[in-house]
Amino acid sequence: MRVLKFLLQKEFRQILRDPSIFRILFIAPMIQLLILPLAADYQIKNINLAVVDHDHTQYSQKLIHKIIASGYFKLKDYSATFPQALHSIESDKADLILEISAQFERKLVKESKADLFIAANAINGIKAGLGSAYIQQIIQSYNAGVRTQWIQFPRFDPQPTIEVTYSDWFNPNMNYQYFMVPGILVMLLTIIGSNFAALNIVKEKELGTIEQINVSPIKKVYFILGKLIPFWLLALVVLTIGLTIARVAYGIVPVGHYITIYIFAAVYLLAVLGLGLLLSTYAQTQQQSFLVAFFITMIFNLMSGLFTPIESMPEWAQIITKFNPVSYFIEVMRMVILKGSGLADIKSQMLAILGFAVFFNGWAVLNYRKRS
Amino acid sequence: MKNMAAVVVDNIVKTYRIKKTVVQALNGISFSVDRGEIFGIIGPDGAGKTSLFRILTSLLLADSGAASVDGFDVVKDYKQIRNRVGYMPGKFSLYQDLSVQENLQFFATIFGTTIQENYNLIKDIYQQIEPFKDRKAGQLSGGMKQKLALSCALIHKPSVLFLDEPTTGVDAVSRKEFWEMLHRLKEQGITILVSTAYMDEASLCDRVALIQKGSILSVNTPEGVTEEFKKPLWAIRANEMFHLMNDIKDDPSIESCYPFGQYHHVVFKKDGNNKPILEKIVQKGNYTNVEIDSIKPNIEDCFMALMKE
Predict the structure, then answer these.
(1) Which residues of B touch A212 (CB under 8 A)?
(2) Using one digit for the tens of pLDDT, what is the confidence trace for B142-186?
(3) What phi and psi, each to the nearest 5 degrees, are found at residue B67?
(4) Residues in chain B closer than 8 A to A14 (CB atoms)
(5) B22 lies in a domain?
(6) Which of A233, A234, B216, B217 is the most exposed place for a label (fewest CB within 10 A)?
């Protein structure tokens, strides 16, 4: 144990002496946490709209006004023919074309039925999907508006319409920052955890200092603990900074306890640091270690449910997320912060992460060789 | 215990596989080193010196063969070995971002000792760098780094010290100083194995092993090695060195000829009066400023001769 104390003393000296570690550990996450959540916005605004109006009547004008007035769309092009409008999509001026057929008003009034055509530029799939969904909603409400106008005519039997009202639980205003900020914080912890300890060990390999350690009677468990503990503590400090930023900058106050978050994070960091240690036992250079860790954390983050819900992934991908520690932590973070879950509610996630921690660290200790 | 050899190497073989090519680093070498000896492993780069040291310090496993250090097997008793050997790798490998004193302190503690406990052992060496004890190791000059590395390798009072090319890249004055330090350490009863590519350092060792391509050419005292050289050796120089070398090599009575500083060293196949042979070559080629001397072989001559065999 005395040896461990000196190992830790040495590690902390080196970490505190390296100004770049401090910059990367603290300033970079702060900036990311302040900028990323503002940029990673799911609402799509400023969809550029091209309109082809063959009708030129009061009803068609009203529809166009209603769409523009929604705030989601910008009228960028008003063409006489569809090919002309298509050209504006080709030149990337418009994202969506709305074609209003000739006799739109006449048909709507007489036959109570009219056709509209929507074409979306699907190069950006999310923009196309959301854009056409928005416009359909607007058209439906326009349709409902037209019908309420006509309801006074008794001879008309209005189509029965189902109106849906909804409320969003746990996040009543659907503030996306409430679920993005905790998620991004998890992502940052993962990147720090999987990289820093690993890079540190591989640096000792590169400089040859690990030879001097290997030739000494030091036990490998102490050596690994000496590397693990400092970065475990640093990552918990980063978590504290992150939660403070979430509270101050975004007003995110967890419904549950901070203690729950810290307990889970402590175990989670063991798992991620273990992954880093495992990589470091295989990598010979810092470059190798960094690139592999980058590749793995990128897949972990993209498949974690941070950006796209796990439930909408294909079945095989959902199975993969079961082996992704990041997805558990993001789930737990959202549960604790938004729903107020306690330790009992996150028991299954905790067990899974414990499993990861034992697996990665066990493999790392077994694979770390003091001799080759 | 006293009579037991400090290091015994018995038929050690080590090969490296790099993709499909197999590199034979150590080709079944055997030797033993007595207690309190300075034993030199002399050989060019790539001869297998570092592999041998890594095996003896329990960092590397040999393919076959056995070795013991201080009576302990390097494979079975590696734990004991790690407590009693000092290893100074060829590359400077202390913590560059820790100060001189912090490095020494760290290596003392991981060996479970303190600087004070063995201060007398490193005093001579450490005193020279003590004025810079708060300077970071990375900011030291080459000679000072080497002294610090030696101090760190000695701080736990090892019984056997392994120095892998300690004088490579060190200036002539520091090299001389370094060897004086080694001789003082020897007086403290520490066995020292030192590898070097500089042939002139061989004469500073008690005994040397000449090693080439993973095989030992000869193990002897420096004097013994040169005595093994039986053939007549001459040094010759002229203004036209390159042509001279070609002409000499054409003569059938000459075993070999190689450049040595400002001279060519010429080895004859047979004893006898060989000077006229050289004079004849010189006359025929109209060489100017010629100088011919009979000389005594040094270690490098022996090494060249042994390599040919």
Answers:
(1) 87, 89, 93-94, 107, 152
(2) 888 888 999 999 999 999 999 999 888 788 888 888 899 899 999
(3) -150, 145
(4) 95, 97-98
(5) yes
(6) A233
Q: Is residue A216 located within the same domain as residue A276?
A: yes
Q: How far apart are CA B248 and CA B79, in angstroms?
A: 57
CB contact under 8 A, A6 and B110: yes
CB atoms inside a 10 Å sphere around CB B294 = 10
In this structure, the answer to whether residues B164 and B216 fall within a common structural domain is yes
In a domain, A86, yes or no: yes
Phi, psi at B72, each rounded to 5°: -110, 135
Q: Whole-number mean pLDDT of chain A?
A: 87
Helix (H, G, I), strand (E, B) or coil at B9: strand
Minimum Cα–Cα distance from A9: chain B residue: B106
Which of A209, A219, A225, A369 is the best mutation test for B, with the most CBs of B within 10 A? A209
The strand pair at B38-42 and B64-69 is best described as unpaired
CA distances from A177 to A41, A185, A235, A265, A339 (A): 8, 12, 22, 20, 15
B285: nearest Cα among B254, B258, B250, B256:
B250
Helix axes A176-207, A325-334, angle to 10 degrees: 140
Size of interface A-B (CB pairs under 8 A): 67
Which of B172, B197, B227 marks a domain boundary? B227
Q: Are strands B191-196 and B160-164 parallel, antiparallel or unpaired?
A: parallel
In a domain, B309, yes or no: no
Chain B interface, best mutation among A216, A218, A227, by max B CB count within 10 A: A216
Question: What is the distance between the alpha carbons of residues B290 and B296, in angstroms, rounded to a whole number?
Answer: 19
Contact A32, A188 (CB under 8 A): yes
Count the domains in chain B: 2
Token pair 């504290």 is found at A240
Q: Is the ipTM of this complex over 0.90?
A: no
Query: B281: Cβ–Cβ under 8 A, 6 or more apart, which residues?
Result: B244, B247, B248, B251
Would residue B181 count as lying in a domain? Answer: yes
Q: Are residues A116 and A206 in the same domain?
A: no
